[in-house]
Recover the amino acids of this structure.
């Protein structure tokens, strides 16, 4: 049995408190009026005038004329209103990014776990309890997501702009035929129902899979194992469909004019590689504390191979999405990449390639390196940071636009959800023995050797 | 020391492995082992050093990558930078995404093919090479250990018999 170390528990709680304070600070410092935004933008412009070049590429054509030329008062106000909404979105975006990041780790771990069951893998059984512990975050994570989405609906249409009823009103100046065409899918009731079904389905599988897995420990026959095998197969079918739709609904709909057919798989690759990394890191931590005597460095080697392989898979999807749009250069598609490739997100957009592709590629290529715990941990930290930035670059351009920063709201949100994640996961690990001894493949897994 | 070779034939890979361990413990020098299929752990039991072919493959990959970058920079940017469908041919970086598929394929091409050729050269394999198996059965279902021996072979023969050898021949 694992016992939650005092030090870790206290640091998790401290993270949560610090994070909550920082999040509150983020909400309290939102500018409330156009006047405040004026001051804020002037301060920013003094700091970096060279960034003005990037400002030209803002999506709204009204912004483009701003530099040097005379601009009408109406356009100026419109610009400032737009900026005000961006500033107001910032603490929401910071929470959403961190919240989704930790939620997707739990969800990806669940998918990895189901794959191990459905493929009858022989090596990973000794890691099952670790994975079950990590997926314990799924339920609190889901509740946070659900609460956030309900608040974003109740709070008006600044976060998900397609919720603005003006777009669907033929009398309005904002009337948007493209959004009207999509409204059979993108409407609030259907959207909420879908979200609810996704979260419910994933949590039901997690509940029964863990229950059966624990029951199998005491079992004399393989009833529970077989139940889990079937459940995993059907969960994977369900997951493959719902994960894609989740990516459209929660992330792609932030830019409702833009679409990409492989976006769902792209989000999946981010989610999957991050969760394998977290499985490896938690396993190495528990092993170093002496709680997993049955895990050997061949298990680390396999996990590191998955980290390596899926980092490359992520790059493949990232590049496939980017290159097809860059190559054809169709205006309605490139609008998505303009702020990311040429605009204010360039550094993050190119930087994450370094940490999500180049580092894992070079650091984890060598077979010997994949067995060294500190090597896996340090590569893992680079990969996780990179995938946080990946989510950041997916969400921020559509919500906070040019006014992005990594400041107190962002770091506090990470701290809060990191603390919650650590607390929930390691608390769940204390609940059951760390060896799934009833599993038919456990002997093979204990003797696994590569 | 005369140039005699002892050939011991086995019909089971587990017996072969334990015989190899016995021979190593008794400090006999194993010349060669012939098997019809890869026996897991044999190279460790014999004490062969690790292969370096993966390192060579990495180096070949780097060469292929560099070749692709040089080739496309020369052809598309330096030599004749045409405007082809509005693609920015001003610098390599600006047009890089269009080159990535070729860079990737040439990296894989160089790494794979040069590694295979290296393997052929290092293991001396080519189309008209004379086959070297001392006993045709070793390609089907028998295993053979070749040991260089001095004049006194009795002790070695005893050891091999005890280890489970089916047949022992001595070739001058």
């Amino acid at each position: 049995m694992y016992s939650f170390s005092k030090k870790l528990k206290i640091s998790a709680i401290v993270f949560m408190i610090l994070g909550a304070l920082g999040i509150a600070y983020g909400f309290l410092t939102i500018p409330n009026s156009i006047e405040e935004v004026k001051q804020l933008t002037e301060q920013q412009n003094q700091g970096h005038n060279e960034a003005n070049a990037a400002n030209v590429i803002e999506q709204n054509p009204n912004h483009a004329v701003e530099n040097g030329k005379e601009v009408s008062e109406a356009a100026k106000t419109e610009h400032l209103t737009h900026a005000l909404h961006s500033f107001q979105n910032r603490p929401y975006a910071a929470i959403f990014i961190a919240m989704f990041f930790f939620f997707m780790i739990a969800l990806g771990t669940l998918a990895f776990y189901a794959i191990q069951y459905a493929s009858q893998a022989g090596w990973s059984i000794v890691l099952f309890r670790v994975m079950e512990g990590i997926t314990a975050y799924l339920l609190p994570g889901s509740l946070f997501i659900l609460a956030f989405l309900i608040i974003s609906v109740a709070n008006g249409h600044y976060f998900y702009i397609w919720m603005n009823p003006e777009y669907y009103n033929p009398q309005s100046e904002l009337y948007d035929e493209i959004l009207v065409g999509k409204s059979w899918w993108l409407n609030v009731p259907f959207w909420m129902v879908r979200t609810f079904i996704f979260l419910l389905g994933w949590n039901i599988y997690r509940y029964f899979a863990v229950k059966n897995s624990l029951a199998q420990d005491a079992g004399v026959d393989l009833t529970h194992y077989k139940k889990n095998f079937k459940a995993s197969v059907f969960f994977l079918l369900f997951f493959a469909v719902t994960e894609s739709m989740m990516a459209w609904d929660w992330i792609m709909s932030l830019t409702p004019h833009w679409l990409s057919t492989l976006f769902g798989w792209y989000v999946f690759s981010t989610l999957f590689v991050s969760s394998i990394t977290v499985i490896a890191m938690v396993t190495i931590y528990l092993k170093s504390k002496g709680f997993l005597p049955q895990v050997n460095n061949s298990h680390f080697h396999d996990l590191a191979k998955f980290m390596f392989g899926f980092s490359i898979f992520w790059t493949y999807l990232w590049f496939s999405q980017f290159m097809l749009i860059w190559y054809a250069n169709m205006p309605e598609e490139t609008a998505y990449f303009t702020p990311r490739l040429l605009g204010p997100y360039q550094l993050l957009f190119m930087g994450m390639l370094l940490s999500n592709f180049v580092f894992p590629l070079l650091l984890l290529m060598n077979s010997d390196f994949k067995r060294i715990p500190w090597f896996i941990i340090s590569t893992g930290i680079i990969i996780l940071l990179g995938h946080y930035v990946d989510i950041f670059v997916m969400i921020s351009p559509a919500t906070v636009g040019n006014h992005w920063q990594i400041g107190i709201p962002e770091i506090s949100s990470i701290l809060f959800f990191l603390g919650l994640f650590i607390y929930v996961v390691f608390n769940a690990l204390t609940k059951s023995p760390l060896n799934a001894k009833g599993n038919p493949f456990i002997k093979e897994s204990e003797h696994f050797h590569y | 020391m005369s140039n005699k070779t002892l050939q011991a034939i086995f019909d089971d890979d587990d017996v072969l492995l334990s015989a190899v361990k016995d021979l190593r413990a008794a400090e006999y020098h194993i010349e060669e082992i012939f098997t019809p299929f890869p026996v897991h752990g044999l190279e460790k039991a014999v004490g062969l050093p690790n292969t370096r072919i993966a390192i060579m493959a990495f180096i070949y990959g780097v060469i292929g990558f560099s070749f692709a970058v040089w080739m496309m920079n020369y052809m598309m940017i330096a030599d004749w930078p045409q405007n082809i469908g509005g693609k920015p041919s001003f610098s390599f970086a600006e047009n890089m995404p269009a080159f990535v598929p070729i860079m990737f394929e040439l990296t894989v091409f160089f790494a794979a093919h040069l590694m295979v050729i290296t393997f052929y050269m290092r293991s001396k394999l080519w189309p008209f090479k004379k086959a070297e198996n001392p006993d045709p059965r070793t390609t089907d279902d028998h295993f053979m250990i070749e040991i260089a021996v001095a004049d006194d072979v009795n002790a070695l023969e005893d050891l091999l018999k005890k280890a489970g050898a089916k047949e022992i021949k001595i070739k001058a």
Notes: The first helix of chain A runs from residue 6 to 28. Residues 36 and 389 of chain A are 29 Å apart (CA to CA).
